Amino acid sequence: MGYLELTDKKHFRKMYLVPLLESGKLKMTIPDKPNSRSQKYIRV
C-alpha cells in the first residue's frame, strides 16, 4: 500500500491484493492465518 501510495485498506484488498492472490501471482507466507499481523506476501 505504501509503495502505491494508497490509504484505503478495503479498496486495496478488494482491487489489488485478492485478485493477485487468486491469479497466483502472489503467495502468502502464512496461508493458514491470512489475518496475521506478521503476514507477508511473496511474488511468484
Brief write-up:
With 44 residues, the chain is an alpha+beta fold.
What would your notes on this structure say?
- The protein is an alpha+beta fold and 44 residues long.
- 34% of the residues lie in helices and 14% in strands.
- The chain contains 1 helix and 2 strands.
- It has one helix at residues 9-23; strands spanning 26-28, 41-43.
- The chain has a two-stranded antiparallel ribbon.
- The radius of gyration is 10 Å and the shape is globular.
- The chain starts with 8 loop residues before the first helix and ends with a strand.
- The mean pLDDT is 94.
Which characteristics define this entry?
globular; 44 residues; single chain; two-stranded antiparallel sheet; 14% strand; alpha+beta
Largest sheet: 2 strands, antiparallel
CA radius of gyration is 10 Å
Structural class: alpha+beta
Count of individual helical segments: 1
Helix-strand layout with pairing:
Elements (H helix, E strand, L loop, with lengths): L8 H15 L2 E3 L12 E3 L1
Antiparallel strand pairs: 1-2
